[in-house]
């Protein structure tokens, strides 16, 4: 199917995103000279940009592509948490984030000089969410699942939001979830749920794949599908695109377009294409197209996705 047809079919489908939400920050500036204190550049700050990351970024991508998105996660009761929740609201997702008293919101700050990231500072609590906050998150997840979303997307960055109780709840409701996707740094804890789709980077599965190219991933097809218990596994190879392995279809290798890659948009495009009835190959191609699109080309209406539609299928 053509992209426009798929996009028309997935408009307004309900999607639930649950997992680790992050505040991503870019401090961009111009290097002016070398510091006298150390062999590092002195950067004059030109701009600061803050956006939702992790589960918040996934929710934003789904919403931008036209889905009705709900996000369940947790922030601290600090300024970073307030900023992150405001980003979720601004992006148009239904906010069911939990505010954990005394917890520091996970924040990733990048220093960018002349277009290059020269440093990253991570801050925030990543210990397992506990106490009243954990109970509230579980309640909000149960309420969201009761609304019968067409797809549930798990974002597991190992930042403490998704504990055993969350996995147990999802396992108990698994038969009621038409499409379960897991985007995780460690997929092993999710295998018992039998995900419909798992999206990983090559680094994540380096213990299974003996090599760093598409051929090596394809050669490990059986082991990857068995170890993840997933119907479809998508492995990102950065500049080489992705390799998509399936229980019921041929292996698909997509090519990456030059330039930055939007991983949340890739996941959203793949899931929504599947909801629209696309084959694995069509969903992979749609996801790759979304990953290569500029953020402003991801818009709620099909008529506004010109930058995506202009690219041949």
Automatic annotation (TrEMBL):
One annotated GO molecular function: kinase activity
**Pfam families listed in its UniProt record:** PfkB
- Can you say what this protein is called? PfkB family carbohydrate kinase
Q: Which UniProt keywords apply?
A: Kinase, Transferase
Q: Which SUPFAM superfamilies match?
A: Ribokinase-like
Q: Where is the Carbohydrate kinase PfkB domain?
A: 16-293
- Lineage, highest ranks first: Bacteria, Bacillati, Actinomycetota, Actinomycetes, Micromonosporales
